[in-house]
Design a protein that fits this description.
Shape: elongated
Order of helices and strands: HHHHHHH
Number of strands: 0
Helix content: 55-70%
Radius of gyration: 17 Å
Structural class: mainly alpha
Distance between the termini: 8 Å
Length: 201
């Protein structure tokens, strides 16, 4: 199993390199393993440039990221989990927490509502786990827990990629579009890694 760790490390390293490359031509967007979140203090002009798809993106991606972090915390709290899975969960948590903070800052700057506690399905958010799904993950152990986490996170990532692609095509805020592009790229890469792990558990 440990032989697979270089695969994950390679994906994360490649993601970092691509992010740093994009930052050289896009000021104010520090690189991260799993997505380049805009700076903590975007300019007033940048924050003021937005449209309805930008707001929908932030409102949808915020609870989506929050659930991904929750799922990662659940799996990291369990014993006897495949180390490739815990490596991946650690990377997801570390990368998405800063993006959560940025999404919250955008919604505040735009005077938009944080719908994290509202009915996710009513807002077209795809890939979110149900309460039953989360309960199943909580109760699972060992290989079953690793397998369930990967299957759930693949669906979760696919939903995030769909939302991010819509933002790339329809959004106006340049920082939000850049975050969306990183989500499409990095989470697509992670889906491939998770699918590979599933074949060898």
């Amino acid at each position: 199993m440990n032989s697979f760790r270089p695969h994950i490390a390679a994906v994360i390293a490649a993601a970092a390199m691509l992010t740093l490359s994009s930052c050289s031509s896009m000021a104010g967007m520090p690189g991260m393993d799993h997505g380049a979140a805009p700076s903590a203090s975007p300019t007033a002009d940048a924050a003021a440039t937005y449209n309805d798809p930008d707001v929908i993106f932030a409102q949808g991606m915020l609870p989506h990221h929050e659930q991904a972090v929750e799922m990662s915390e659940v799996i990291l709290a369990k014993p006897d989990i495949d180390p490739r899975v815990t490596d991946l969960a650690t990377a997801i948590k570390a990368a998405q927490e800063p993006e959560i903070a940025q999404l919250q800052r955008w919604l505040t700057a735009w005077g938009a509502e944080d719908i994290g506690s509202m009915d996710h399905g009513a807002h077209g958010m795809t890939g979110l786990m149900s309460e039953e799904d989360m309960a199943a993950l909580e109760e699972a152990t060992g290989v079953t827990a690793s397998t369930l986490f990967l299957e759930q996170m693949i669906a979760h990532h696919q939903g995030a990629v769909d939302m991010a692609q819509t933002e790339v095509e329809e959004g106006e805020n340049p920082d939000a579009i850049t975050m969306a592009e990183e989500i499409v790229r990095s989470q697509t890469d992670e889906i491939t890694v998770m699918q590979d792990i599933l074949t060898t558990l």
